[in-house]
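ARCHIVE CARD
Drawer: 12
Card no.: 0347
Subject: one protein chain, sequence and derived structure
Cross-reference: see card 0346
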Amino acid sequence: MGDSRKSASERGYDSRWQKARDTYLKSHPLCVMCHADGELTPAKVVDHVIPHRGDQKLFWDTANWQALCKRCHDSDKQRLEKSGEKRTKFTPDGRVIWN
């Protein structure tokens, strides 16, 4: 069965992930995509910059995480991933986003 057919829990988004996600968002409260455009939007999603596709090492690598608002995650980031377009943008502190 492909990764997309597994439940969120089966893909690793379980209680351990929820705790890690909450901790990350407390430390990274703003959407990095909005912030890079000069907007201050609360982040609600921890996104994997490079899709992990089931790779647990990549899944738990906090250097591969970015805080996004739901709108950026559900529209902008998903559109980039589906198109295969590679666009690199940087946060004000130098982190790569939109990879």
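Annotation on reverse: Residues 13-94 form one domain. The chain has one domain: 13-94.
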